[in-house]
Each structure stands twice: as structure tokens, then as C-alpha cells.
Amino acid sequence: MWNTSDLPGGGGVLCVSGAGTEIGKTVTTAAVAACALRAGRSVAVLKPAQTGVAADEPGDVAEVLRLAGGGGTAPDAMTGAELARYPEPLAPETAARRADLPYVSAHQVAEAAEKLAASHDLVLVEGAGGLLVRFDDRGSTLADAARLLAAPVLVVVQAGLGTLNTATLTAEALRARRVECAGTVIGSMPATPGLAERCNLADLPRYSGLPLLGAVPEGAGALPPARFSAAAPGWLTPELGGTATVPAAAG
After folding, report:
1. CA 123 to CA 71: how far, in whole Å?
2. If phi over 0 gives left and psi between -120 and 50 gives alpha, with beta otherwise, what is residue 111?
3. Across-strand partners of 78?
4. pLDDT at 76 over 80
5. What is the pLDDT of residues 203-217, one digit of tens each?
6. Whether 59 contacts 50, CB under 8 Å
7. DSSP label at 236?
8. What average pLDDT does range 98-115 have in this prediction?
């Protein structure tokens, strides 16, 4: 099983994708970063394409750095980078075309991640939306960048109804492209889960064939950074640098 502790110092890349959009991918990325930082590792966060954010507004990278840096991290232990920013909240290829701005390619993503990996213990590459959302007019995706990097992909999934299908489809797409998948994380787990959410804890691994590596609580992104950083290890399993055991499913 893939484990962040197996990554060699100065060379580990983990791509973070979603089985959809608005399901807690950025907060999950921040939680993984916080665990690595608390373990004394340096972290770089790479966002290939940020959409729907104005030039002077903080994007996903800024949010990850804000949340993950709450544990008193040394300034040089964490950095972030964007390759492109587009004004409309659309898929990167669509947003770039409508704004008449340059596309980002999978090769550019891989090159940027490799440069960051030369000086950081862990590089987190956060995609936009789902796995097969296009970066450019040639159809390149985060899956293509992960394959170029020989990097595993962590898939963030929703908690309730519909997640079994989207998680399984994403897992099948990764296997078809011969891209390793680290596992899945529920990006926003309700404080009082319903029947579907409780059953999915057991059903997600059965359907997708991927290990469930954690569940980030709903509203975690609203926590003060110091509390977020301190709590993050309790949301993720040891494979992602945490201490959690995924809770038992409902009978």
C-alpha cells in the first residue's frame, strides 16, 4: 500500500484529484500538508490551473498554506505555486479558451512538480474538479500529469449518495491509464452521518477497490489554522501521515 513515509526525501509527489467538484479537495490537500509539516517535512503545493478567482484574490494554494501553516511551521518549510489563473469558474480548458489565455499542459505540470520536488520532501499537486477535466485543447488531464511524474493520485470523494459510482468510475479511469491510486478520502463528513454516509465507509473500498484513507469533518476549513493543523492527523490514516482509524460502518 502506498504510504507518504515511503517517499524519498526531496522527491515525493502526490496528485490530489476529486471524484467531482466542491467536495473538499482543497481542505483535504491542506490536511495532508499539515500532517507532513507536523512530521518535520517540507511541503510544496502546486495548483496547475486556478479558475473562478480574480487576479488579486487568494486561491486554493493560499487556502492550503493558510490552514496547513497553523502549526507554527517555519516559513521556508512550505511554499505554493500556480501555473495559470482564469477568471471564470469553469473547467481550465474552457476558462482559458473563453478568456483567450494560454493553456496549461500536462508536461508543464510535470515539469513544475519535478522542480519543486528537488527542494521539498512532498509536493502536492491539486487538480481542478474531477480527474478527467481538461487542461488544454489537446485533452491533457491531471491523470496525464500523474503518469508523466509516475506519481500516485489521491481521490477525494463525497460522503453520501452517488459517491460509490463516481469513486468507482475514477478508480477505473486511473487503472485504465496505469496510474497508481493512493486511495480515497471523504472530503466533508457530516457530524451526524445519515445511513448512506455510514454505509459508504465500508462500501467505498468494496466498490472502488481502493483503501479509504480518512474522512475530513464537514466545516473543517472554517477552523482557525492552529486548530486545523492540530486536528488534521486525527482525520487521516497513517498512510497519509495521520493517526486515524477509519470508523466502522453502520450495520
Report:
1. 19
2. alpha
3. 43
4. no
5. 999 999 999 999 999
6. yes
7. B
8. 97
21-51 pLDDT, tens digit per residue, is 889 999 999 999 999 999 999 999 999 999 9
Where are the strands (E) in 115-246, listed by range? 122-130, 153-157, 181-189, 212-217
> What per-residue string of b and e applies to 179-201 under the rule 16 or more CB within 10 Å gives b?
bebbbbbbbbbeeebeeebbbbb
Mean pLDDT of 120-124: 96
Contact 155, 131 (CB under 8 A): yes
pLDDT at 71: 61
Alpha-carbon gap, residue 152 to 13, rounded angstroms: 8
Residue type, 124: L
Task: Count CB-CB contacts under 10 A for residue 248.
Answer: 9
Q: Which residues touch 101 (CB under 8 Å, ≥6 apart)? A: 84, 86
Which amino acid appears at position 207 of this protein? Y
User: How confident is the model over 149-189, as pLDDT tens digits?
Assistant: 999 999 999 999 999 999 999 999 999 999 999 999 999 99
In the chain, the N- to C-terminal Cα span, in Å, equals: 27
169: which 3 cell numbers?
A: 468510475
CB 246 within 8 A of CB 201: yes
Report residue 251 as a C-alpha cell: 450495520
Catalytic residue numbers read: 47
Counting Cα atoms < 13 Å in the Cβ hemisphere of 53 gives 18
For residues 174 and 181, is the Cβ–Cβ distance under 8 A?
Answer: yes
